[in-house]
Amino acid sequence: MELILALKEDITVPVELDVILPEKIQNMSEEDIKNIEIPQGRVKIKIGDIFDVELKDSEIPKMTVKNSSTKLKRIGENMTTGEIVVEGDVGMHLGVEMKGGKIVVNGNADNWAGQGMKGGEIIIKGNAKDYIGSTYRGGYKGMSGGTLIVEGDVGHEIGEHMTKGIIHVKGNAKSHVGIHLSGGIIIIDGDVEDRIGGEMVKGAIVIKGKVASVSPTFKFEGIVEDPIIKVRKKDEGIKVEGKYYKYSGDYCQTKPKGQLYISVESNPDLRK
Question: What residue ranges do the domains of the chain occupy?
């Protein structure tokens, strides 16, 4: 079954939608769904107060959110199966603690998309803000599985405390990519600001665009061509085409095993 939620009009006070998941509404009627209570600021409202609700047949559990807004938060939190499609932008905490299934956002995403993600797939067709695939403030457990793809640009501190999984950004990124990284792979197709991989102990970061600098606490290991990136020996690995400066680090940590690959073509003067 597919649940279609169409926002009736713009809202100014954020709404949290974590109680609505594809797997939870499979045996519910339209009337039941309309009467589900959700938080809006400090009060509770019903789904039917702000959404038009429609049910359709579907081969998989599915939810579609139309006329979406950055005021719609926590979509797909703790999702385990099925698919969510968001038509428009989405608010903070998209796919928090997600364990399975697929989320596609045909727009932009606010902060903390994929926070603590454990499995499944998130595809953001536009840009995403800060802390994607990261932990909550003060936490130590970031993304630990799954795949998070952003087709546009991202903000600061993506993949913070990430332990496993893949983040692929097809645009540019701001500072602190992979800070405290302890596993997983982050690939940035575009340019990146400074402080890449700060305090990383394991995992890999691949930068295909220009970088502002590389921390002096990283050790240059040489130039590699078309490397196959593996974080663990048993992994199949991911092949990235091109010629890269390879660094290990961050040596401000004890016995680090982090891998940093930076495009030679995009940064011809980096080692001069």
Answer: 2-263
